[in-house]
Amino acid sequence: MRILLWTWGILLTVVGVIFFYSTSIVGDELVTDTEKRSHREIESIKWLIQDHTTFQSEKEFAEWVDALGLRLGSRITYIVDGRVIADSDVHYSNVSSLDDHSGRPEVVAALHRGWGSNVRYSDTLRKDMLYVASRVEAASGVPAGVVRMAVSSSEVSQRLDSLRVNFLWIFLITLVCAALLSWLMSNNMGREIRAFSELARSIGNGDYAMRLRVLPGGEFKPLAQSVNAMAQSIERSVQLVQDQKGQLQAVFDGMREGVMTVDAQGRIESFNGALDNMFNMPSSSVGRTPIEVSRRYELQELVDSIMADPKPAGQSIQLDLMDSRTVEVSGVPYFDQKGVRKLVVVFHDITEMKRSEEGLKDFVANASHQLRTPLTSIKGYTETLIDNPPAKLEDARGFLDTVLKSADHMDKVISSMLALAKSEQMGKSLELAPLSGRVQLSRAVGDLIPWAEERSITFSMHTPEDEMMVMGETDGLLHVFHNLLNNAVKYSPVGGVITVSAEDDGESIVFSVEDQGPGISREHSTKVFERFYRVDENTIDGSGSAGLGLAICRRIVKNFGGEIWHDGYGEGTRGARFCFRLNKPEESVVTNI
After folding, report:
1. Which residue of 55, 239, 255, 271 shows the fewest CB atoms closer than 10 Å?
2. From CA 31, how far away is CA 130, in angstroms rounded?
3. Furthest C-alpha separation in the chain
4. Three-class HEC string of 398-432
5. DSSP bridge partners of 134
6. What does pTM read for this prediction?
């Protein structure tokens, strides 16, 4: 709009100046042209006077002047020594009443230079007149004097007025056309500028898909192309940022480790769900200090220490939580886009790792203990045989039997350890299949009947009539039955009864093996499934038990997706009853099999 106003102002100024100078020049030229035309007419009048026959009187001359003025359409006046003797616009009878004209400018100039002209208002005619005068020598009975012609300036004024009107119309039409053209141009320009503004507003509101329409040859074409390229680049960048933000948010929320971000004032900015599960973070945690939400001064000291360190470096501590979990807390500083130091705190649950370390220590200690006792026995009897050989062969054979039993015990311990390791490894890639529980149970019972008959032990079977299909693996299921039945035979008294039963509860088959031995107290009921655990850990019986059998059974059953437990314990209770449950295959799987 400012450009348009300045343009119109300059246009008006230029047109006004042109109008003023044009009318002035044209007016001067019209006056000059009228003077020349009047001069030619006066020369004609002078020639007519000189060529005319002698006038007999002033009246005759006055009447001739009247006729000539009427024919020329101009006022003709003849002045002698300031006195008007003829005037074409005044009757001869009234000529004598006219004023003395000797002082009129055009008359004075004509007398001195031969010619004179002047424009002034005529009191007689009541309008502006152009007076042109010329000196005349005496001729045809007319005395010497000055002939003057008066031409009305209205003709000049009319021509000037017509010029002014035409010029004004041209100016108005030009102004209207300029205004219309300016409006169209400004409207187009305004529309394009509004499009730029709308695009900028859309980008500010998050809509990056909008583009400008590029018109060929338009003055905004390069700018529109640049803005479109900028919008496209911004759209790609924002999409990339959003994708990365979504990925980071997914990683942030999906991490098993708890994560907390802390601002420069040591207050929580954000945290993920894993941290919420660890500390049960309240909804108002954001904006509060770590000690307020965790009630752990160690965590607050870690944050304060890292934030106060002039040389930012990561630090870590370990926290023991109320639910017996152990968490390693690591703090790593970083700087935001403004160079302000902030902090990321990561909470890593190392409970399982700690338990594994403790389990490994226990495993090594138990294995060392299990192997050291028979190894000591072997070493002692061997040294005795070497240093003090018995005199009787039967005594030496007794020593060697003891050495053999200790060696067998060590072999069983090592074999059991390898079996346990194998079962743990197989559980990672084991593919279960439907198999008959009746078949595996029958095989295990058949394998142990000879040993049971040596001790007059009988088996009592209570199982369904069907095949008792379960999901598992043949060797593993057979090993579980062997181990449970072997323990039952080993701890049952002579002439005892081992009860083997199975029950279908609809979704799974529950197997149980019950003996009539000494039983297991409540104190040891859940611990018998641990590695190397024995009710009397200082006892190594004649069978060479290593305390790994039930641990192996638990691992195998767990690999099959089932569970195993000890049932039937208490003070004064005789016998032990071990049960385990395995899932039944789906009907479609059984049909396909």
Report:
1. 239
2. 8
3. 210
4. HHHHHHHHHHHHHHHHHHHHHHHHHHHHHCCCCCC
5. 115, 147
6. 0.41
